[in-house]
Amino acid sequence: MDHGYPADEVRPLSCDKYERVPDVLDIHRNDVLGNYSVTFLDTITTFAIFGDVDRFERYIEMLRNLTFDLDSTVQVFETSIRALGSLLSAHLYASDKFNLPSYDGFLLVKAYELGLRLIKAYMESNHGIPVARVNLRTGSKGLPKELIEETCTAGAGSPMLELTLLSILTNDTVFEDVSRTAFVTLWNGRSALDLVPMSLNPLKGKWVNGLTGVGASIDSFYEYALKGAILFDDSELMVIWSKAYKALATHSRLSWFMTNVHTDTGMIATAWIDSLSAFFPGLLVLAGKVRDAHMLYQPFLKLWNKYGGIPERWDFLATDIKNQVMMAQQEVISLEWYPLRPEFIESTYYLYRATRDPVYLRIGEQILHDYNTTFKAPCGFAGYRDIRTGELQDRMESFVLSETFMYLYLLFDDDNDLHKNEKMVFSTEGHPIWLPSGVLPQYKRFKSDTLIQSGLLVEDRSQSNESERTWDEKVVGFIKSLLDSNEIEEASAPFDTAVLDSYGECDIPPQSGFYSRYLSDISSFEVDAKFKEQFRGMKSMETSAPFYSIFAPPNGFCSREAETSFLAFNFGDLSQVKECDLKITGDDIIAMTLKGVVLRLELLKLGQIDSTNTLIDNDFLQQYSTTGLYDVRGTCTLEDEMFANSVFRVKSVNGVEMSPDGSFDVLYVDRGIETSSSGMLEVVNDVQLMIKGVLITNLRIMNLT
Ligand code: DMJ
């Protein structure tokens, strides 16, 4: 406030103001700097979260003269999450939570004015997708082509959440109409594998690449499908989330990573993860998938252990096909900055809330320490320009105060009021948002009344759900494909039943005793061994002596490093994956057909230590011995050698992991499976299956129909 305000940002090292520049093409600088004091505006809700009502009230008063009538060309997405989201959240606090006597609703009025300016971006394309940028005063018309001919899925889809909330709070449906159209249009453009590309030309209505993942350019699309489903009690968004996650789990999931894949083939496209994708474990916690979240969190923790930050892009894989081992690359960091992003801390917060494992507090403590010692600067906090050399950058984006520190604060604030508000979700910028009681039914009534008056809807008060669906069908014809699918049953079911498909198990481990379950979970340290070259030299905060000596579990042990390798096999046409219904019973998985199944298999070879810390010796293999099973051909091609004296263990089925602790859960498949004529698949002993002559130990064939 002393050095930056009212500029958009303050430079933390030099203490200068940081503002937009006249060159309209300088998007790296201007996209988030709208000349409306973005850091101040974005941060206002943190005072509400601290429970500091006096300061919150004082600071919102400073927004009374805020205007968006500015000649600023900005990114629609960034303005929506940083400015609009903050205004809406602050309005909810001032009205619904604190009931401030002096508050007259002016924040909502400002949000409304801003909303009207932002939706001009939707008017510029004929395909329902907003262009990426808008001039706050004049709209998107006439902007240079370079600013509007490309956008990303996160940018075009995500404003749906803030704009729908704006509609609900103001009873003006236009914001929901345009933004929901864009969101569902993007989803309807998905590939046959249910994968949504992440980059498009909104003017032509065409994807510009066929890649997807969960990081930059697409992250908040998934985030808002799930959070929109929760906030608006919206079963169609829940169906989108469930299908999207199922596709990602199947095609994009490698044990510890969600990687970028080609949307048409499901094949791996890049072998890196980005800092933005560190939010995904937190989102999985929100979806009830704590075990998956725990796995996907690992690499980010190891990166913080090593670098004291998360590199913007980190390469995880170079595979030596011959030996099937992961090799270290020369250069593992391909984008070297860490601008104090919140995502890793956000996931730490969610994992702690779900598990109450003290390890996450220990991690938070270390992060806090690193912020205070490394990043603290004379006028703010400065992140790394180069994480490898420790060089700092003279920039502090608005999310540092509004999101990074907010999650860090909430991690330690067990009793915060927010933790009691079950219908609250955090926006992607960390602003708490919720619907005051009674507002949603009122808005739904308003919507159908409006449609009835305009002749678009026939009145039928007895079946309000049906009326709503008719509204969608008539006004928003693009959701047809969702309505046509048989998931309409699921869609109209109560909220929590809709989540309980095979990807929706809620696995929160029971806590017994005063120790860290994290430390006793074998999967917490597998990734260290697999990628030991990349992580060489890291300090491990989770095993630092002061923490370990207090929280290590009784009878703890150090597991040996796994030497086994992993392979993936898919059966049938990959487009069948989305039709393939898995069922989970206890710890076992049932697949009625192998068509559309992607198996990740661990190859257990004589003499190796496996991922459960077991030595694969002759006795072990003997259990699975079938006459003539091993080395029957007597020839030694490379493949034969690789598969000789080995068995397979199923590790995951369509992205659903079997237990990590080696309790040998079983995959049951129906007897009707087809074995291939090439001899790739072979049924043995009537109930077991071999791939390329190698037995799968935990797969059983049964009469299931
Ligand atoms: C934030 O502005 C939001 O979290 C957004 O969704 C992604 N990027 C930044 C922080 O990294």
Strand fraction equals 5-15%
Count of helical regions: 27
Mean pLDDT: 85
Helix content: 25-40%
SS-based class: alpha+beta
- Which consecutive residue ranges, at least 5 long each, have pLDDT under 50? 319-326, 461-511, 627-638
Instruction: Give a quick account of the main beta sheet: strands, pairing sense, barrel closure.
Output: 4 strands, antiparallel
Notes on the structure:
Helix 12 (280-286) packs antiparallel against helix 13, helix 12 (280-286) packs parallel to helix 14 (343-355) and helix 13 (290-307) crosses helix 23. Helix content is 39%, strand content 15%. The chain has a four-stranded antiparallel β-sheet with strand order 23-26-27-28, covered by helices on one side. Strands 24-25-29-33 form a four-stranded mixed β-sheet, with no helix packed on it. A three-stranded antiparallel β-sheet has the order 5-6-7. It is α+β, with helices and mostly antiparallel strands and 705 residues long. Bound molecules: 1-deoxymannojirimycin. Residues 81, 220, 276, 341-343, 399, 403, 428-429 line the site of 1-deoxymannojirimycin.
Annotate the secondary structure layout.
Blueprint: E1 9-10, E2 17-18, H1 27-30, H2 38-49, H3 53-61, E3 73-75, H4 76-97, H5 106-118, E4 133-135, H6 145-148, E5 151-152, H7 153-157, H8 159-170, H9 174-188, E6 199-201, E7 206-207, E8 211-212, H10 219-231, H11 235-251, E9 253-254, E10 257-258, E11 261-262, E12 272-274, H12 280-286, H13 290-307, E13 313-315, E14 319-320, E15 325-326, E16 333-335, H14 343-355, H15 358-375, E17 376-377, E18 380-381, E19 384-386, E20 391-392, H16 399-412, E21 425-426, E22 432-433, H17 439-453, H18 464-475, H19 480-484, H20 488-492, H21 495-499, H22 517-520, H23 523-530, H24 532-535, H25 545-551, E23 565-571, E24 582-585, E25 588-591, E26 597-605, H26 618-622, H27 638-643, E27 646-653, E28 656-657, E29 667-670, E30 681-684, E31 688-691, E32 694-695, E33 699-702
Parallel strand pairs: 25-29, 29-33
Antiparallel strand pairs: 1-2, 3-4, 5-6, 6-7, 8-11, 9-10, 12-13, 13-16, 14-15, 17-18, 19-20, 21-22, 23-26, 24-25, 26-27, 27-28, 30-31, 31-32
The structure holds 1-deoxymannojirimycin.
